[in-house]
Amino acid sequence: MNTPAGSIDALEIVDSMHAVEFDPDAGLFRATYDRTRDRSSLAVVAAVAVASSTTPVDLAPLHTAVETAALDSLFPGSVDDAEPARISFPYEGFEVTVSGTGAIELDSQGEQPAANAPDGTTGVSSGTR
Question: Looking at the record, which segments are called Disordered (predicted)?
């Protein structure tokens, strides 16, 4: 993804998220992050920005779609949950689903996905940090 000089690359705000992939069979963007290292709210913003081919600052504030403090507290840093929680909400043209396992799914709600690489990934792949 090309970003203007001085802009924030979406994946730079979430150290543990290395790529956002598009699954054409399911019609979903998928990303994972380490919830012991990064906040869920930042991971959502990063994933949506990459899937939208934009920067995080160009998105509406996440708090307009969901209470960010509640989202972050729903998925605390511990990983000992027997049954991970899930939450879904609309944001920036996507139905966002966040799981307590650190998985994020973005359903583009009938819109075509942003331009993807031939391997099905969008944005920066792992190993570029």
Answer: 103-129
